[in-house]
Amino acid sequence: MAKKHEETEASLVRRAEQSGGSQGTGVSRRRTSHRLKLTGFVARRKSLPVGITWDTELPGFGLRKRKSGHLTWIVKHRPRGVQRMVTVGSAGVAAGALGAPAARAAARRLLIKATLADLPTAPERQKAPLFADFAEEFWLDYSPHWKPSTRDASRAYIDKRLIPRFGALSVDAIKRADINRWRDSMAVAGGAFNRSIPIMSVMMQYAEKLGYRDKNTNPCRGVSRFKRDLPERYLSADEYRRLGKVLAEHDGANEFVLPALLMLIYTGARVSEIATLRWRYVQLPRIALPDSKTGPKTIHLNPQAIAVLNGLQRREDDQLVFPAMYREVPINLGQHWVKIRRKAALPDVRLHDLRHSFASVAIAKGIPLATIGKLLGHALPETTARYAHLADEVISESADRICSSLASSMGMTA
């Protein structure tokens, strides 16, 4: 049987030689190649021709025989379009020679690796840090692009709400379930959650950009906020009279408290816009703020507001119009307002309610919502739309008055 097998191998070798010789007269003898199923028997045959014998089963796997008789297993492949010939190991009967099965396995691994190298691969994700460490990285990169007021508020929520809750977790380990559990635990502080969740969402988006999380895995997306009944407190005519009387009698130590409060009442401006107002922004008959909650804003001044500003001594352009008593910092109207509203028997009226009341008076005077939105500096019409029900009440009341007048003229009573 062994003799018969050797004869079969020899015939295969001769057939390969004949095949190699029939490829054309222009092929050099030194580069002659043949095709056989490469086995240990083939590698040990002394009659194996000089050159490369390629395997019939694994393309690119070959056995090279030099003129010296030295045999090596080789692999040919084309990584990124460039042909390469790699030696896998020695073949034949020499010490340390690699057997055919082992050489074939090594060649297959090399060919697979070369094929995969040509395929596009996703960038490796960086090792995600703990949330507490990431918070500092995020802050250094992101916070310089926020307004000072936004930075102050966001820093407080990160330190007091987010780091205590998620600080020990890896950034890529934070899941939707973690956010939902956090929301449930904040039921008694819904407002704080509503203001914290946008910051957390921005942080998770930035973690994706840095490669700490997979794309589109923001766990905050779709998490519902707590519904809140926004307080709507509007001063009546009688309450305005009580407040005016208290302000007329006000004799506080800080001379800027009264004019600052009057500016809030007369303009409907936000507290921060008046408290941080600087003289260079005062360009009568208007105030031109370079920035506000909704971006650059113009506050149009009525004669009463202009009179308040004219009653103040104008200081340097960079100085505050309404400074604190002993330092060049914005006045804290909140601490003064608490005492004033108690004297006026208005304990539930917030400073921001003066802004709401400004809008309610404007609606009562028939001013369109679009105009009121511009006076208040609303960026979106939807913000002003919260006052629409007041306009409806004014219209309804006007209709009642008209109807009553007509009925009286006709001698009819309701």
Task: Walk me through this protein's architecture.
With 414 residues, this protein is of the alpha+beta class. The chain is built from 16 helices and 8 strands. A 5-stranded mixed beta sheet has the order 1-2-3-4-5. Strands 6-7-8 form a 3-stranded antiparallel beta sheet, with no helix packed on it. Strand 1, helix 2 and strand 2 (51-55) form a beta-alpha-beta unit. The protein is rod-shaped. 23% of the residues are buried.
Give me the secondary-structure topology.
Blueprint lengths: L1 H20 L11 E4 L3 H5 L6 E5 L5 E5 L5 E7 L6 E7 L9 H18 L13 H12 L5 H19 L9 H10 L4 H20 L27 H12 L8 H11 L3 H5 L6 E2 L2 E4 L7 E4 L2 H8 L22 H11 L7 H14 L4 H8 L4 H4 L3 H22 L5
Parallel strand pairs: 1-2
Antiparallel strand pairs: 2-3, 3-4, 4-5, 6-7, 7-8
Query: What is the overall pLDDT average?
Result: 82
Q: Any low-confidence stretches, pLDDT <50, length ≥5?
A: 1-30
Strand content: 5-15%
**Helix percentage:** 40-55%
Q: Order of strands in the sheet with the most strands? A: 1-2-3-4-5
Number of strands: 8
SSE order: HEHEEEEHHHHHHHHEEEHHHHHH
Number of helices: 16
Span between termini: 125 Å
Task: Based on Cα principal axes, name the global outline.
Answer: rod-shaped
Overall radius of gyration:
42 Å
Q: Determine the structural class based on helices, strands and strand pairing.
A: alpha+beta
Main sheet makeup: 5 strands, mixed
